[in-house]
Amino acid sequence: RMIKETREKESALFFFLSMPEPIQIRLASVYVPFVGTINTKENTFNARVDVDMMWPATAEDLKNFAADEKHYKPSFNPDLVVQNAANLNLRQIPGVNTNPFTIKMASKENFVRVRCEGSFICSFELTRFPFDIQDLKMSFALSFVDASEAVLVVSPEATSFVCLTRYTALTEWVFVRLAAFSEIKEGFSYATASLIVKRKPDIYLKKLGVFAVVPNYGTLLAFAHDTYGEQIRVLLTMMLALTAILFVLQNMVGCCSIV
């Protein structure tokens, strides 16, 4: 019995050691050249993200690339998908020879750049509005490939980097930082780019200040009337106006950044 159990353990260990290593797809670069609208009412934001992927080239890849660089296709082609895509367009960016695939001969790695452009889904937290800080996440994965076959890798070393543009169409947000990390969940590999933005409160404080001054000024005008009935009438009118203003603030300003 002991001999049988030992043989079973050796067989399981041999099977584990004989399994091929998953292909490591390194995200050499995550570049966000543009950020458009941030719509906290619909829980979406618009952006353009360029993702550079590199993975080891096989001997067959090197041979095929040397034979025909213009029509070269790697033996393994990773299909990048965006988990939180709302309305997104993904396309591979061609190089100088109109081929999106190439091999970096210095490291003998395949290279392809994927551009993700459109709207992403994001859950916003607005309890601290208008002093809120939002985390705009972009989650990437590989289609029909689990972690035993290929994994996305974001290295903390100089082999991977993230870059954020200084130019933006947003007037009410400030970029804080952009970071990226990779992880394995439930047998699948994921990579996430996290863009932290901070709202500029001055724009909203000015708008809220106008709404606050008008009812207070109207209340003071009520006491300028001599008769008690006129004072009550003006005060009731101002209370109704204040209720309407609070309704507008609750339904528009507090949940949507586009005002």
Question: Nutshell version of this structure?
Answer:
The protein is an alpha+beta fold and 259 residues long.
Structure description:
- Helix content is 29%, strand content 39%.
- By secondary structure, the chain is α+β, with helices and mostly antiparallel strands.
- Strands 1, 2, 4, 5, 6, 8 and 9 form a seven-stranded mixed beta sheet that branches. The protein has a four-stranded antiparallel beta sheet with strand order 3-7-11-10, with no helix packed on it.
- The longest helix has 26 residues, at 228-253.
- It is elongated and about 100 Å long.
- The termini are far apart.
- Mean pLDDT is 79; it is low at 8-19 and 254-259.
Number of extended strands: 11
Biggest sheet statistics: 7 strands, mixed
Give the overall shape: elongated
Order of SSEs, N→C?
HEEHEEEEEEEEEHH
Radius of gyration equals 28 Å
- Average pLDDT: 79
- First-last Cα distance: 76 Å
Q: Report the β-strand fraction as a percent range.
A: 35-45%
Query: Helix- and strand-based class?
Result: alpha+beta
Low-pLDDT segments:
8-19, 254-259
Question: Key features?
Answer:
11 strands, elongated, 39% strand, single chain, disordered C terminus, alpha+beta, 259 residues, 4 helices
What is the element layout, followed by pairings?
Blueprint: H1 2-18, E1 23-39, E2 44-56, H2 59-67, E3 80-82, E4 85-92, E5 102-104, E6 109-121, E7 133-142, E8 150-153, E9 161-164, E10 173-185, E11 188-199, H3 201-222, H4 228-253
Parallel strand pairs: 1-8, 1-9
Antiparallel strand pairs: 1-2, 2-6, 3-7, 4-6, 5-6, 7-11, 10-11
Helix pairs in contact: 3-4
